[in-house]
C-alpha cells in the first residue's frame, strides 16, 4: 500500500509533569541550612542567633534589642516558598543574597570587635557557617531551572496504517477467544 500525503496526519501530544527540579531541591537544602543555623551557636561560648542583637549588623556596640532571628526567620520563609513554588527562582535567589548579607555583616562587625591576637575563624561557630552555606546554596538554586516542564511532541502517522493496525489487533483478539 502506498502512503500518500493526504493520508498523513500530525498528532500533537502534550505532557505536563510535576516534578522537583534541581533548583527546588537545592532551595530546600538552603532552607534547611538557614533554619538549622537558628538553633545552633554562631559564636564560641554557645552564643546562638536568639542572643545576638539584630542591631549588631550595623552597630558593633549593640547589646540589646530584637535578636538576629528577626532577619533569619523571614529569610528562611522566602527561601522555603521559593523552593516549593516552581516558578519562584527569584525568591530563592533573593533569600540567598539576604542570608549572605546577614552573615557577611555579622562577620564584619564581629571582626571589628576582636583584638589583634584573635582571628575571626577562632570565634565563629557552626550556626554562622550553616547560615552562610545555606544562603550560598539558595543563591545558586535561584539560578537553576524550576520544576514544571511542558513537552510537546509532534508525530506523523499514516491514518490508513493506524486503521489497519487496529483491524489486526481486533482480528487477533477474535481468534484467541
Question: How would you describe this structure to a colleague?
Answer:
The chain is of the alpha+beta class. It folds into two domains: 5-14 and 151-176; 20-147. It contains six helices and four strands. The protein has a two-stranded antiparallel sheet with strand order 1-4. The longest helix is centred in the middle third of the chain and has 25 residues, at 89-113. Residues 166-177 have low confidence and may be disordered.
Task: Provide a brief overview of the structure.
With 177 residues, the protein is of the alpha+beta class. The chain has 6 helices and 4 strands; from the N terminus they run E-H-E-E-H-H-H-H-E-H.
Strand content: 5-15%
The tally of beta strands, per DSSP, is 4
Strand order of the largest sheet: 1-4
Please write the string of helix (H) and strand (E) elements. Answer: EHEEHHHHEH
What does the main sheet amount to?
2 strands, antiparallel
List the helices and strands and how they pair.
Elements: E1 8-17, H1 22-39, E2 41-43, E3 47-48, H2 69-84, H3 89-113, H4 120-123, H5 126-141, E4 149-158, H6 159-176
Antiparallel strand pairs: 1-4, 2-3
Question: Which properties best describe this structure?
Answer:
single chain; 177 residues; alpha+beta; disordered C terminus
Amino acid at each position: 500500500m502506498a502512503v500518500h500525503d493526504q493520508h498523513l496526519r500530525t498528532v500533537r501530544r502534550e505532557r505536563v509533569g510535576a516534578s522537583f527540579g534541581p533548583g527546588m531541591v537545592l532551595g530546600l537544602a538552603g532552607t534547611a541550612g538557614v533554619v538549622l543555623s537558628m538553633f545552633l551557636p554562631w559564636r564560641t561560648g554557645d552564643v546562638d542567633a536568639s542572643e545576638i542583637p539584630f542591631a549588631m549588623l550595623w552597630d558593633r556596640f549593640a547589646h540589646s534589642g530584637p535578636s538576629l532571628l528577626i532577619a533569619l526567620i523571614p529569610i528562611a520563609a522566602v527561601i522555603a516558598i521559593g523552593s516549593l513554588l516552581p516558578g519562584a527562582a527569584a525568591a530563592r535567589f533573593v533569600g540567598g543574597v539576604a542570608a549572605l548579607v546577614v552573615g557577611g555583616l555579622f562577620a564584619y562587625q564581629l571582626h571589628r570587635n576582636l583584638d589583634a591576637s584573635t582571628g575571626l575563624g577562632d570565634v565563629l561557630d557552626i550556626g554562622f557557617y550553616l547560615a552562610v552555606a545555606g544562603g550560598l546554596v539558595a543563591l545558586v538554586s535561584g539560578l537553576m531551572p524550576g520544576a514544571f516542564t511542558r513537552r510537546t511532541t509532534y508525530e506523523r502517522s499514516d491514518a490508513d496504517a493506524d486503521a489497519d493496525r487496529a483491524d489486526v489487533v481486533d482480528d487477533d483478539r477474535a481468534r484467541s477467544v
